[in-house]
């Protein structure tokens, strides 16, 4: 049996990982992540509990990571840390290497939101915004987006694709008024057609289309019509369980390679603006409590 190199475990560079996480935490100004930087603050950069809150994990685990005492972090946990620490794409890959994982590929099934787009989510503040892949995977959301439509970043398998949930899970349509559902079905299929054209020969796209055709007669019929349209700007009505009907303008900004999209949602009328403000008031305290419970605090 070989001897494990000092400072490593299961392929993890434990000491280097701990040092990297500490230094990146200390390099972030609280204001960059929406945290007030009060006059009595003595900590350089973020506090450990703030990183834990942003990443949705326990403070104890952050402490153990920074002290080199943790178990090997999972890829999912590394993604959360990378977002919390606002790592660049290169820094994110480095984090994966130090933790004994292969960095996710730039394309395909394990995509991550671009670091620059994640920073834009922070800048948008109380405006709901999210980063999506061209196949409709939710890659990152800001807090306002979480309050508006809950967390959609944790789905696995085909469920991570919005279009798959729409055509295979009836409850996914509850947020859309009945009179708008047929149009939304067409828009989703036409957008997937455009992505399939750009990514010809991609097994991820072909597999998704094949499984949808097998699961949904509605999808099969719409796919056969071969309508193509990339969604960039739209107005939609959202039925929210707490504040009711919301009329939203949806602006979609597409990256140059069309692989990722920044979706920004703004109120289209005064009534929606008031209801979204009410949602922020109702949801902020609940959001903080839910995070604490997930962290075990």
TrEMBL record:
SMART domains xrefs: HTH_XRE (SM00530)
Alphabetized InterPro entries for the sequence: Cro/C1-type_HTH (IPR001387), Lambda_DNA-bd_dom_sf (IPR010982), MLTR_LBD (IPR041413)
Domain HTH cro/C1-type: 44-92
Domain of life from the UniProt record: Bacteria
Molecular function, one GO term: DNA binding
Pfam families: HTH_31, MLTR_LBD
Name of the molecule in the record: Helix-turn-helix domain-containing protein
């Amino acid at each position: 049996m070989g001897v494990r190199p000092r400072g490593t475990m299961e392929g993890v560079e434990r000491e280097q990982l701990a040092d990297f996480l500490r230094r990146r935490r200390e390099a972030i100004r609280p204001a960059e992540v929406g945290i007030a930087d009060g006059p009595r603050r003595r900590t350089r950069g973020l506090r450990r509990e703030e990183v834990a809150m942003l990443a949705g994990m326990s403070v104890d685990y952050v402490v153990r990571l920074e002290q080199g005492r943790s178990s090997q972090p999972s890829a999912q946990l590394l993604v959360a840390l990378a977002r919390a620490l606002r790592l660049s794409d290169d820094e994110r890959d480095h984090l994966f290497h130090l933790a004994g994982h292969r960095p996710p590929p730039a394309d395909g099934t394990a995509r991550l939101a671009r670091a620059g787009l994640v920073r834009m989510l922070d800048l948008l503040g109380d405006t709901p915004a999210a980063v999506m892949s061209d196949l409709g995977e939710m890659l990152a959301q800001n807090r306002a987006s979480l309050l508006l439509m809950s967390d959609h970043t944790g789905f696995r398998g085909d469920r991570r694709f919005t279009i798959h949930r729409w055509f295979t899970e009836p409850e996914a349509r509850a947020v859309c008024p009945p009179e708008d559902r047929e149009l939304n079905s067409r828009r989703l299929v036409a957008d997937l057609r455009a992505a399939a054209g750009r990514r010809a020969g991609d097994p991820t796209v072909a597999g998704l289309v094949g499984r949808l055709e097998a699961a949904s007669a509605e999808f099969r019929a719409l796919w056969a019509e071969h309508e193509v349209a990339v969604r960039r700007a739209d107005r939609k009505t959202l039925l929210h369980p707490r504040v009711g009907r919301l009329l939203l303008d949806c602006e979609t900004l597409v990256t140059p390679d069309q692989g990722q999209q920044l979706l920004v949602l703004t109120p289209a009328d005064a009534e929606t603006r008031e209801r979204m403000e009410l949602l922020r008031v109702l949801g902020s305290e609940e959001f903080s409590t839910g995070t604490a419970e997930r962290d075990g605090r």
